[in-house]
Write a sequence for this structure.
């Protein structure tokens, strides 16, 4: 079962079938998809996305969360980790890829950082490295990735679009290493 994570302002939980209308609102918003495919998703594509999220949890033990406000339960966006087997060079391999999409009315409040910080804290227990791919024109996501500790390591082309690749490493140290002054 996917965990439910809570932050001071958000609840992050697995998708359920009843989330379909809210996810359609998210994925048909032109501002949301501007840097993620460039066009609004059809209801069929949104339903496939929800099923893909459920499949990640079932097969890989990690996936995407639906983020809702803690006070009203309104859907804010989707945040999480996935392995999409993207056809890019260099390849992500089996490294989990972080991603996020957020409704415009919730942007600029620090909610994306809050959601992803909680997810990455959860992931840090078992994932020594995560990656993400960002359109170079998406300045908000570039800024967010930097605040979360992601550093650019390559550039690539994905579906005929230039993209930047970032990584975030979690270094686990033994108690002896933590005592060593460097």
């Amino acid at each position: 079962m996917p965990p439910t994570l809570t932050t001071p302002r958000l609840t992050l939980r697995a998708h359920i079938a009843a989330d379909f209308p809210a996810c359609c609102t998210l994925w048909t918003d032109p501002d949301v998809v501007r840097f993620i495919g460039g066009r609004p998703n059809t209801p069929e594509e949104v339903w496939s996305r929800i099923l893909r999220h459920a499949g990640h949890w079932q097969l890989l033990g990690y996936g995407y969360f639906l983020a809702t406000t803690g006070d009203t339960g309104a859907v804010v966006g989707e945040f999480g980790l996935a392995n999409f087997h993207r056809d890019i060079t260099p390849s992500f391999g089996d490294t989990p890829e972080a991603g996020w999409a957020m409704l415009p009315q919730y942007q600029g409040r620090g909610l994306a950082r809050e959601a992803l910080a909680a997810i990455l804290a959860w992931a840090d227990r078992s994932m020594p490295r995560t990656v993400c791919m960002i359109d170079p024109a998406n300045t908000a996501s570039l800024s967010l990735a930097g605040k979360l500790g992601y550093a650019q390591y390559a550039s690539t082309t994905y579906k005929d679009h230039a993209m930047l690749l970032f990584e975030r490493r979690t270094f686990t140290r033994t108690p002896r290493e933590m005592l060593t002054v460097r």
User: Anything to note?
Assistant: Residues 5-128 form a domain with the Aminopeptidase fold (CATH 3.40.630.30).
